[in-house]
């Protein structure tokens, strides 16, 4: 199995810092099923390429199988695992580049936090469903995809293509995001795993899926193929829908395909089930913005653009902007809003840009209102003061609307241990949120009102907390 990661960022050899693997060295890593080697076929200031080679020991792999799994006779020794990227390769990728995958680089942290030009190639990748599946899965994440089918036998072209493709991904993506996406999606394309799946697979999927899986138009397909077991799939989809920061509602796929107009959304799922929490958040924040009478709104940490779509469809908002640290999410938002087919007049209302909320950016300023919907809990507590300074101090909109989970309510979610999302750095109870709101308001000259979103419980309150900050005249 073989993969290359290339960049033309200058100096390109900075890739070695991000991967924590020096270009001048060949490094080997022993796995339970073989040996992984990292080396650099090319390392110049103009272009740098890192390669990961995994050599499988079929005997060691067969001996490592669980006793209760069938051996399929010679199939455990004679198979494609030595040549085709699979879940074995995904596990190796995650282990060998573990620090890079979490986005940590002490000497080049700003670079690790930034999208850079990348090209990733996997020459032999199992892809059940053919090249079309590769396009459906990777393109919404901001990649340009080339998936060339590999002939079953070049000597017999009439036999047609095999189930393998030669995959090349090109895009400007944060390296940590690229590695995490590959970790999840390689076994999704192969639709086969080399290990027994337990209940912890749901947490692993949500942790690795980060902020991109819930908003992916093929989230259900990815979840089903990753987990492959109906019980776990149901649990994962429920958590994506109810607890995800920007999860899709049951009619989200249909809305994505609909042409964008200036009319408010009216389509509702034809079901008697209660409204998903993320939809209740969107409804509540939109109602507050309308009550405030604002005309320009920026959605900070907009993700794949579900709430942006609501804003753009509301005619009273004459200027709408969305900002996110993830370029992949911004690409998804652009597709959701159909920016490429908007009229010039419509496009003048809308702006999308990449930015980090802990760094000052003049593009954040000049709006009547800013929205931080399920954002602050993703920020390390030590960096939260920087966000407060950027949003409430430098940008200083007339109103700021902040939503965040109410930790007390978590006891009502079955099978939830810990926090609601693997990427949450903290979750506040009602007193903690009220204390934070009061301090921020006093520091930056705002008045604040705290409300609840969702169906409340007597002892624990609402599932979501909402702080409405307005500039103190």
From TrEMBL:
- What keywords tag this UniProt record? Magnesium, Metal-binding, Methyltransferase, RNA-binding, RNA-mediated gene silencing, S-adenosyl-L-methionine, Transferase
Ranges of residues in domain Methyltransferase type: 298-398
Q: Which CDD domains match?
A: AdoMet_MTases
What EC identifiers does the entry list?
2.1.1.386
Compositionally biased spans, kind Polar residues: 263-274
What the entry lists under NCBIfam families is as follows: bacter_Hen1
Q: Where is this region: Disordered?
A: 245-274
Looking up InterPro entries in the UniProt record yields: 3'-RNA_MeTfrase_Hen1_bac, Hen1, Hen1_N, Hen1_N_sf, Methyltransf_12, SAM-dependent_MTases_sf
Name assigned to this protein: Small RNA 2'-O-methyltransferase
Instruction: Decide whether keyword Transferase is in the record.
Output: yes
Looking at the record, the residues that make up the Hen1 N-terminal domain are: 1-240
Q: Does the keyword S-adenosyl-L-methionine apply?
A: yes
Q: Which cofactor does it need?
A: Mg(2+)
Q: Which reaction does it catalyse?
A: small RNA 3'-end nucleotide + S-adenosyl-L-methionine = small RNA 3'-end 2'-O-methylnucleotide + S-adenosyl-L-homocysteine + H(+)
Q: Which family does it belong to?
A: Belongs to the methyltransferase superfamily. HEN1 family.
